[in-house]
Amino acid sequence: MAAKWEKTNKYPGVRWRNHSTRKHGTKFDRYFAIRYQVGGKRIEEGLGWWSEGWTEKKAYDTLSELKEAAKTGRGAASLKDRRKQKAMEDEAMPTFSEAVEKFMIHCERTRRAKTVRYYRDGLAKAEVFQPGKGTGKLGEWKLSEIHRRNLAALIEEIGTESQSVAIQVRSSLSSLYAWAIQSPREYVETNIVRDVPRPEKPAPRERTLSIDEAAKLLAALETAEGDPAMIRLVRFILLTGCRLSEASHLQFCEIDGEWWEVPAARFKGKRAHRVYLTEEAAAQIDPDTDPPFASIRTGRPFEPSSVGRWLKRNDYFGLDPFSVHDLRRTVGSGLAKLGFSMEVIAATLGHKLQGVTAEHYIRHRYDDEKKKALTVWAKHLIKHATGKKDSADVIPLTSKRA
């Protein structure tokens, strides 16, 4: 005999019946259903079992939502319609990999190439992550199925190997979800990455070469093996203190006599920056190659990773490991040791001076000071590299090796 339906005045429209044998805790499991009218038609729909999380209160809240939808015409007015709508939404909901693909297309139109590569690499690591045994890779999951705990586990796991990569993955995921919540997409309602703890930044692996180390490197580059353009590029950075990303994309149209003006679009500070070209630095710019620091093999500017691998293959020319950006720090520290002021060093390296006075009132370009600073630095560096006491006897470095 079927169990009798029961109801209570506290939750009108809600009914339930007990299972004949199965228990939930100390009581028999209970199945809930609701009754209501839409357009004069009585509707009765089953909800689910107590053991599945249903309660009288939850059933009544669901009933109230359906009645409100029927009254206002907004949303599904029955569970059948709601389930059908959800099925359609699930079908339209992209997988994580599909969302990543659409997001990257968006980024290629709106972000810098460097940022696009950063996001692509970070999200590629997320796609292959498997949240649990037998769950499949994250890339196969519907975006709406992914929970905060899944992403937290991913970032934590990557962080055990590399904090910097974990930071990259979290940043990439946050940007992906920020895009996914926007109209007209609205794949998700919130950016669940925001509440995932940020990985701690790794201790910076910075170092500055001493003048003897910098001189040894400069001398070693004269006989180094590798792409001549890369060798000239490293020399150029050591002589000017500029960033690799700016120097590697140098164009002849940016050079005016003894000055190279890095355009604002390519300079980190988003403003034009003038670099004085000493005789030694200018000698590194090959007039027969356009762009002058392009790879002979690919014809494209060098990336920091490729220069880093080349330095590593050459065992850093007998020095303790260093990055190409450490050469920029070396120039700044070298100028300080030569007695130049912080204002001149900042102007030479293209750093923005802080403070109201510097930002709003100082319009001096420091051209004379920058010229003197880089001239003195080049003479000082080459004097140590050649072992000559008199800097006036220094012969400028050649631009191309046979």
UniProtKB/TrEMBL annotation:
InterPro entries: CB (IPR044068), DNA_brk_join_enz (IPR011010), Integrase-like_cat_sf (IPR013762), Integrase_catalytic (IPR002104), Integrase_recombinase_N (IPR010998), Phage_Integrase (IPR050808). Residues 204-375 form the Tyr recombinase domain. GO terms for biological process: DNA integration; DNA recombination. It comes from the Bacteria. Keywords: DNA integration, DNA recombination, DNA-binding. GO terms for molecular function: DNA binding. Residues 94-181 form the Core-binding (CB) domain. Pfam families: Phage_integrase (PF00589). SUPFAM superfamilies: DNA breaking-rejoining enzymes. Belongs to the 'phage' integrase family. This is Tyr recombinase domain-containing protein. It comes from Geoalkalibacter subterraneus.
